[in-house]
Design goal:
Helix content of chain A: 55-70%
Structural class of chain A: mainly alpha
Largest sheet of chain A: 3 strands, antiparallel
Largest interface: A-B, 81 and 78 residues
CATH superfamily of chain A: Winged helix-like DNA-binding domain superfamily/Winged helix DNA-binding domain
Shape of chain A: globular
CATH topology of chain A: Arc Repressor Mutant, subunit A
CATH class of chain A: Mainly Alpha
Number of helices of chain A: 7
Order of helices and strands of chain A: HHEHHEEHHH
Oligomer: homodimer
Strand content of chain A: 5-15%
Number of strands of chain A: 3
DNA sequence: ATATATATCTTAGTCGCTAAGAGATTTAGC
DNA sequence: GCTAAATCTCTTAGCGACTAAGATATATAT
């Protein structure tokens, strides 16, 4: 039993470590937003724009889980800060594309340099093969957590008397 | 050069994967808060209480980065929800310890079951030795990002004219 | 004993969010 | 084509969580 017990302890330790490091990653992001002088959601949207390129306001709402009204505010702030531009779609004039003002990518990017350098240093202590192992684990973990999130969300929609009650406050906000 | 180039690509891919999975982890937490019907910060505090046990209000403020005023609100809500109790320190009557009401740990804990099961399944595909590698990487990464966060924070305190300017708040007028 | 430090709470004001619905445009049905 | 419904973004009202500053209570130092 000592073997499986050691493994159980290892799993628990790993979970704690992952939680800790993940939380710290979030904190780094919040600090970036802070230094850049923009709100957290604003930075998240910049991240999406960086990944996906030119997207509509509706798509931002979809990905972030915010309402379209909130996105209007986000884009207002980002536009006022000169980080993005609104571009009306000429094909479908209801739509508004949000496009990053190119120069600003570098301006925001500089704030990630400290972390990138730190992580590169850490990675230097690992072989290619080890890094591939990490990559595989990350990807598998991502899929697993994504599925778990969906499973949990379904609880929201199950009738309250059918689900494990906590009798806290009222209806939680949906996202 | 093909060797180092491959590694650079690997590093980049790993970074993206970590960001993605980390973000998903956060989303899972938000969903838990949603289902439980409490605010995000409230759940974060429950997490800290679970990890550290009985802690003072001030300690919560310190760890979360919130002001003490905000923590008063958090604890008010959690206490009203029956999740924690305030306990005045008899040795130093200025201090207020926040203690989790024991039964509620299980109530909140159940929401983490989907993720724990999913992650355990993933971990089953790895040997003890591989998991130890993952653990080591997590811990090293945590320390690195923590240090990077501190480094970035210091930018806030450096005089604005001395640091890489973004002049966001002040409307860089164009057009 | 008085002044200073520490720990929490209170208050006023701000910001970003949601919900609901208005406005503008496109698509579908007849 | 013309009307009705659908789609996409923005507006408005209200709310909840946050900060900053200071009040309150207690502890420590001189």
């Amino acid at each position: 039993m000592s073997r499986t017990k050691a493994r159980a302890a290892l799993l628990q330790e790993l979970e704690a470590a992952m939680r800790r490091s993940s939380a710290q990653g979030v904190l780094y992001g919040q600090t970036v937003a802070n230094v850049a002088g923009i709100a957290n959601s604003d930075l998240e949207c910049m991240d999406i724009l960086y990944l996906e390129g030119r997207v509509t306001a509706g798509r931002l709402a979809e990905v972030t889980g915010l309402t379209t009204g909130a996105i209007t505010g986000v884009v207002d702030r980002l536009e006022k800060a000169g980080l993005v531009r609104r571009e009306r779609d000429e094909k479908d004039r209801r739509k508004v594309f949000i496009a990053v003002v190119p120069e600003t990518i570098a301006k925001l990017g500089q704030f990630y340099v400290p972390m990138q350098q730190a992580m590169e240093k850490v990675c230097n202590g690992y072989s290619d093969e080890e890094l591939r192992l990490l990559l595989r684990f990350c990807n598998e973990g991502y899929k697993a957590v994504l599925a778990a999130t969906e499973a949990l969300k379904r609880l929201i929609d199950t009738p309250p008397e059918k689900r494990p009650d906590l009798k806290l406050k009222k209806r939680p906000r949906q996202s």
